[in-house]
Amino acid sequence: MRKMKPFIIPLLFFLVVFIALTFENLKTELKLPNEDWSRSLPLQTEEIGEVKPVFQEQNGMKRVYVPKENEVLSFHVTDTLEVKDKQTTPLSIPSPQDFWVQGDQYIFVRDQQLIHYDGEKENVLDQDVRGMDSNPNKIIYFKENEILSVDRSSWSVQSLKKVPEQIYLIVLNDTSDSFLSVVKSAKQTSKQLKVTYHQLESQNILREHVILDKDEQINENHFGFYFIENGNDVTVYYTLFSNNSGGKSYKIFQGTNQVNANSDWDFSMMTFIDNNGIKLENPKFMQYGMDDNGKAKVLFTTRALKSNDKEAVNVYEARADGDVWKTELRSTTNDQSLHPYWIGENSVIWLNLVGYKEYTFSGASKNPEVIEKSLNITKVDIKEAVSATILSLFQGLIFAMSSVYWITPAVLFALVIYIVKIKLMEDEDKRILYTILALFLGVQFIFIQKFFNTHFYMFAPDFLAFTGSSFVIPVLLALLSGAAVWYGRKKDWSKITAICYFAVLNTFFLSLVVGPYMF
Fold first, then answer.
1. DSSP per residue over 417-474, as a string?
2. Quick one: CA dihedral 458, 464, 466, 467, positive or negative?
3. Cα–Cα distance between 7 and 27 in angstroms, integer?
4. Helix, strand, coil % (nearest 5) of the chain?
5. Are 21 and 28 in contact (CB under 8 A)?
6. Cα separations (Å) of 387 from 336, 390, 457?
């Protein structure tokens, strides 16, 4: 027992800190993304690969269609995140791509063939097809230089327009017969990008409005086009990817104009700001919509700081507020989220990474029952809390290495005295010992103020991040270190040994308390 005395207080302190940090991290895991939204909950579906699901409104519920290797999985999702009516269809649809579905009828593209599946067999409708898009009422596809549509009454195809340039993309929205066409033509060092808004005025008669006509540089890619119609106003969104000197970026642009206006379209970059005033960069997997009040809303994923030492790709929802888009967190999962989608106004689902290229559906809701259910502690919560604690304590090792800055002056002073007047050291002169101790604590006290920065006060728990903590914490830990020396010191220790023991303990305590929140 006597041999263990020097280690009892440090071990007890470590256990107290470990338990306290674990509880704090567990509170973080259980924290709601916003006051009125639940934590993320897994949906009762099987694991799938990295595919793009298709969503459709049916009987007041969203039906989700998931293309797998040799079948299509489909199910209903309610606004309380319940999964109902699971079905599988023996059909191979490549992903990611859009496809049309209604009941047991499917239209999709495979091997450049437009295929109609009638519930029993596949029928090829056309060849040399580059892509398609659809909504419940419209199916449009394109070849290299031609835009066509499918007549669902006879499953025949008809040409809508031929263009000299190569068609890159066709975009429908969820409700309209109008669509966007995106064409790209090669130039010497760039491409010419042209985006046209097409209105279907009558059978096979299109009215066209060019909304974007610009150069696309070799290191750029415009994609993710979408549009929303609101009376005579049309809002167009797109994503600009750029790769400059190895630095990849994704930026979202928005432009609104009236259908019959003769003025040019003016696009501006959308800036997303979270509740802490932090700008969210590189949004991906965009979903655009309108809320019940007719206001634009956006759903996307991006990588951001989840806690002091953890980043994750989570789901965010944004609404316009002046020149910026105020953003709220919707998911609380710890890995990668993609393909978010609204289930009504009050629920969201997405794909959540659970293994190597393996995903499951997760969701969040404003439903009170779902919120209450999401607050139940799970094994995953405990595992993540303990893992975060261990990681943050390892971060404290960096703090311990920084202690060389306040240990060095005291060591240099002792070394000089040892060289100049060795007898003072051998006699353990109190003036020398107190000076060594004062140098150690004084320089530490001055230097450590830098660690009590904005990051510390943002992420440290309330019992550490209070007014004056940069003074109170070092003093309290110095007193605790002194008490530990008094309790654990052995009789045969010299005073110099006791001071060294004090310095080690004090640095250890500070590493546990301040170290995890340094940066």
1. HHHH-HHHHHTT-HHHHHHHHHHHHHHHHHHHGGGSSHHHHHHS-TTTSSTTHHHHHH
2. negative
3. 30
4. 30, 40, 30
5. no
6. 18, 5, 22
| pLDDT for 180 | 94
What are the angstrom distances between the C-alpha of 225 and each of 73, 172, 180, 339?
27, 9, 8, 15
Residue 466 lies in a domain: yes
* Number of domains the chain contains: 1
Q: List the domain range (segments joined by +) for residue 415.
A: 5-27+386-517
**Low-confidence winner among 55-59, 350-354, 422-426 (lowest mean pLDDT):** 422-426
Cα distances (Å, whole numbers) of residue 466 to 218, 456, 470: 52, 11, 9
Examine residue 495 and state whether it is found in any structural domain, yes or no. yes
| Cβ pair 164, 220 in contact under 8 A | no
Q: Is residue 417 part of a domain?
A: yes
Contact 93, 106 (CB under 8 A): yes
Residue 40 has pLDDT above 90, yes or no: yes
The SS3 of residue 509 is: helix
Q: Is the pLDDT of residue 326 over 90?
A: yes
The better pLDDT of the pair 490, 479 is held by 479
The pair of structure tokens assigned to 87 is 């079905």
How many DSSP H helices and E strands does the chain contain? 9, 30
| CA distances (Å), origin 464, targets 27, 307, 472, 473, 510 | 15, 16, 10, 8, 12
- Cα 275 to its chain centre, rounded Å, is 15
Q: Which residues contact 138 (CB under 8 A, 6 or more apart)?
A: 149, 172, 176, 177, 179
Which residue in this structure is represented by tokens 């029993």?
A: 120
* Span 246-255, average pLDDT: 91
Quick check: pTM over 0.90?
no
Query: Does residue 452 fall inside a structural domain?
Result: yes
Closest CA to 268 of 286, 247, 251, 248: 251
Maximal C-alpha separation, the chain: 107
Q: State the residue for tokens 């190895």.
A: 246
